[in-house]
């Protein structure tokens, strides 16, 4: 006897359309991971003082610094994959912007960054710089800024990691960013 012809039918044809809504394809996920890995490699090419300014976990910061010390092809490839894995846990947009700012692709941002670094250096060198800063920026909290400068000086004298140093930079960045209510030059 002949067996009945086999007809391949999808048991749940309605589920096929919901599978399309399940999320990105495997290829898309691979492209996204490769993009994070490439971003990590470009960030690792920055000087160490720029890497220190990045708002990333310490493990990622250390991995970025380590990539420059690895010269073997396979070792670099595997370490870049590790960086890509760590970067999945952070928001890549601020890092992309930081890379643009650091590489000079955004001249206005570079000028602003130099201004911030200049003010930070001046504030750490002497107390008269704080007076000058407060005259130019009266909206700043003088007491909080003075405490942060002192903490940064103490941190540097003790040879501790630059946590306060970065916090001072971020505070200055917040204080010197253009306010939304200021009119733009047209």
UniProtKB/TrEMBL annotation:
The keyword Phosphoprotein does not apply. GO terms for biological process: ribosome biogenesis. GO terms for molecular function: rRNA binding. GO terms for cellular component: cytosol. Keywords: Cytoplasm, Ribosome biogenesis, RNA-binding, rRNA-binding. Pfam families: DarP. Residues 13-22 have a biased composition (Low complexity). Coiled coil: none annotated. Residues 1-29 are annotated as: Disordered. SUPFAM superfamilies: PSPTO4464-like (SSF158710). Signal peptide: none annotated. HAMAP family: DarP. This is Uncharacterized protein. The lineage of its organism: unclassified sequences, metagenomes, ecological metagenomes.
């Amino acid at each position: 006897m002949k067996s009945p012809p086999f007809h391949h039918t999808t048991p749940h044809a309605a589920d096929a359309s919901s599978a399309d809504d399940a999320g990105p394809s495997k290829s898309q996920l691979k492209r996204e991971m490769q993009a994070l890995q490439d971003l990590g490699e470009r960030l690792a090419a920055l000087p160490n003082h720029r890497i220190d300014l990045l708002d990333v976990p310490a493990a990622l910061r250390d991995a970025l610094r380590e990539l420059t010390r690895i010269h073997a092809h396979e070792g670099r490839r595997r370490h870049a994959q590790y960086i890509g894995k760590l970067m999945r846990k952070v928001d890549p947009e601020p890092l992309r912007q930081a890379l643009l700012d650091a590489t000079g692709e955004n001249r206005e941002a570079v000028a602003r960054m130099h201004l911030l670094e200049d003010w930070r250096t001046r504030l750490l060198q002497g107390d008269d710089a704080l007076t000058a800063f407060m005259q130019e920026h009266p909206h700043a909290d003088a007491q909080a800024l003075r405490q942060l400068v002192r903490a940064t000086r103490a941190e540097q004298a003790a040879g501790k990691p630059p946590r306060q140093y970065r916090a001072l930079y971020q505070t200055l960045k917040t204080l010197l960013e253009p306010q939304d209510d200021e009119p733009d030059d047209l």
